[in-house]
Write a structure and sequence with these properties.
The chain has 6 helices and no strands. It is mainly alpha-helical and 124 residues long. Helix 1 crosses helix 5. GO terms for molecular function: electron transfer activity; heme binding; metal ion binding.
């Protein structure tokens, strides 16, 4: 799906509807995203190449989107990132991730693809 033009276009629309309010229309994230807010929670990170999204394999990105960051990190971690599993189906989540990945330069896409390959090998 990652290179599927129809999925990427659908993902762009879904991203605009469900993700852009926090992560930015241009995937730029919130200002000072590395510094905690007064609540102690971190602002929404960018999903472009300046962020860390591309450091994570597909399985992690999928689970964070579906279940929310706190559910994945555990240990009482608090996050403003909700899970979208009640709102978005699995294919919708995959389409959003395909859109995000389509915006990265080749170096970041290749790194993330390698991380995903390693993740798949571990789970087989």
């Amino acid at each position: 799906m990652a290179g599927d033009g129809a999925a990427i276009a659908r993902g762009a629309k879904l991203y605009a509807k469900h993700c852009a309010a926090c992560h930015g229309a241009r995937l730029e994230g919130q200002p000072n995203w590395k510094s905690p807010l007064p609540s102690g929670r971190l602002p929404a990170p960018p999903h472009d190449a300046s962020g860390h999204t591309w450091h994570h394999p597909d399985g992690v990105l999928f689970r964070v989107t579906k279940e929310g960051a706190a559910a994945i990190v555990g240990g009482g971690y608090e996050s403003d990132m909700p899970g979208f599993g009640e709102i978005l189906g699995d294919e919708d989540i995959r389409a959003i991730l395909a859109f995000i990945k389509s915006t990265w330069p080749e170096r970041e896409r290749a790194y993330q693809a390698e991380m995903s390959r390693r993740e798949r090998e571990k789970t087989q």
